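Replying to the earlier thread about multi-chain prediction with a worked example.

Input:
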Amino acid sequence: MDARSEHVAGHLLAWYDRHARTLPWRAPPGSPAPDPYRVWLSEVMLQQTTVAAVKDYFAKFTTRWPTVADLAAAEDAEVMAAWAGLGYYARARNLLACARAVAESGGSFPDSEDELRKLPGLGVYTAAAVAAIAFGRRAVVVDANVERVVARLFAIDAPLPGGRTEIRAATDRITPDARAGDFAQAMMDLGATVCTTRNPRCLLCPLSGDCTGYRAGEPERFPVKAPKAAKPHRQGRAFWIVRNEKVWLVQRPGKGMLGGMRALPDDGWSARGDGSGEGPIAGPWTPGGAVQHGFTHFTLDLHLALYSGSEVVSLPPDAGEWWSLDRLEEAGLPTLFAKAARLGLAAMGETDR
DNA sequence: TACTCGTGGGA
DNA sequence: TTCCCAAGAGT
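Result:
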């Protein structure tokens, strides 16, 4: 490692010793590594997700499933419902697949980056992070925080995503052999609290003396990103069908949007187009209001249709389930459908009681 | 490579 | 309000 890199790593670790955030899944700086199960679980939850959003879910999962063996033994539906609201549901499916793979191969996580990378849900970032944080292995850990810190530190102009190659090489250069986990977490803490996307606190930064972006007077210009496409706006319909104080819920297909989650029946809306308007039965329907929901790549107006027929509805049992209205919170509906269900309950309050 | 895949918070 | 973004992975 060259002198500048050693200097950077030393300053950063000294800063981390004083300013590390205290987080439920983290060991204090310099102390023994935490349980790999907890490190892995937190890293998966934190993928594209803020610390604030993860905290309650992490507590819930570790209380309910204290070890990877406990999680591996859980029912799919239980885990999916527990994940409801956190988003990116493929993570929950892969979480279970990973827990079961680990449980079947002896119950311990592999301690090398290469082996970790083979597990479902562990990509380049997460495998490196777990290797470093849980096992003290030197690994090049690059998340969005590190990208920002490094792009500013070296004033890397190449726009993302292409510029990631250069950023990774630069990160490799400043990554020390010792205290691998602390270094990775220090970079992420710095990015989260000092080297922030907007209004970076350069006067408080331990690396400002080494930072080319700061010296040039425009740290916020980095990292350069390619412009994004506009989000389309879609229309869809969900159906609120009640019988004997129970509502009809379906399970969505295992892949794709909200895959594997319990949901209200809908008309097949997607990122690519509006729904057909057709429901699982003929109706008649009464308008029950609409909710707007923003996904990563499109915005959806979901209109709720209330069944208003006088006949008692019959539906094929293998297509869904009648779910008690007073236990609706336990169904684990993703946020979009939880919003729609609130409309349905409100509409019933106006008419029934 | 470029898409797809959630959600809530901040500016 | 609207846009951007956050400890990315899978295909």
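Chain A has a mean pLDDT of 95.

Feel free to reuse this layout for your own posts.
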